[in-house]
Write a structure and sequence with these properties.
Elements: E1 6-11, E2 14-27, E3 30-39, E4 44-45, E5 49-50, H1 52-61, E6 64-65, E7 73-76, E8 80-83, H2 93-107, H3 113-126, H4 130-141, H5 145-148, H6 160-167, H7 183-205, E9 220-222, E10 247-249, E11 252-254, H8 257-265, H9 269-276, H10 281-289, H11 297-315, H12 317-324, E12 331-333, H13 351-368
Parallel strand pairs: 3-7, 9-12
Antiparallel strand pairs: 1-2, 2-3, 2-6, 3-4, 4-5, 7-8, 10-11
Length: about 375
Amino acid sequence: MIGNRTTHRTADGIRIPGTWRHAFICNGGQYFLTDLFIYADGLIDCWGLVTVEEFEEKLRTGWVATNLPEGGEASAHELAHWKFGEPESWLTPELLLAEVRDTIDQLNGRPDSTDRCLAAVDAFLADRTEENRAAARAAFLAVPESQRRFALGDMDSKDWPLRVLVAGPGGRTYLPYDGTVTQQSYDRALAYFEEQARWRAKRAAEVPADGPAAPHAPAVQLYHSFPREPVADPGRLGLRHDYPAPIRVADSDYPSVAHAYWALSVAEPEARHTVAAADNALAARTLAAGAPRREDWEHVRTAVMTHLLRAKYDQHPDLAEILLATDDATVIYDDMTSEFWGDNGGRGRNWSGRLLELVRSELRMRRAGILDV
């Protein structure tokens, strides 16, 4: 139910994850199509934050509306106004409340009603007593009806095997048109779950051809600093672009990667030399900001920075060792002057960190002799 509709709110400096869906609010006899925000801490924003219990009361009174009357006047975000004609609603107050409760469980990484249902089904398949079947049936019926078809994640079979299994031979499903479950149908449902179990076991035993999808090493944070002089053992400070590690690029010398970056960003050769000769990286940036910029600099700057970082770690093997020592960690680079280059508390794009990870991988590739580059 969360899907790609992710959002958050901040409470006491803490980011509370959430999601949203559409809903109708009935206020003063008029209906408003609005966004219903649901948060992991159990608060729901429907024109004001309320608890689940308060939200249930708003559903009971019809303030959050699931019954849309013929001829009722409605509007949507000041974009349109209309009257309901032959309205159909698939929600009831009970169903919407159940879906909201499931969403809160999902946002917290807890088993929701579908997870609890599938766990009960597994328990029945492991020990096929009528008591376990009854527990599985109760768990299945506790899944909001609007979500049952998605429980197995199989849009060809939908929930047919599930509703037949929990009903049992001679039983009835929750859908009137299914009729009485025959032994043949029940055997087909059993075969479906047994095949799914074999498939899951096979899938669990498979080793991903390209390894884990994401590294497991902890993140490395490169905090903002103003290094002016090289030190004997810089540690991760040496990974900063403004660390004074001279590089030579295209027959020109620069005191640091930052000096080179800002010098190459300006259009006029004289200004470029002035920037390159600045006392420190901050001064280089200030000078570059006051000079005309190269055309299309924003389109080439990531390629330029990549080239400069390769030069730095090729020409300073000691710093390359520091970079390699970060293993497969995500590199978080702070840059208070740029949300393009810095992560800056999750507000920036962290291109500096991403390029450092790229160069680190290239260093390993060459060290392993995979490609002769």
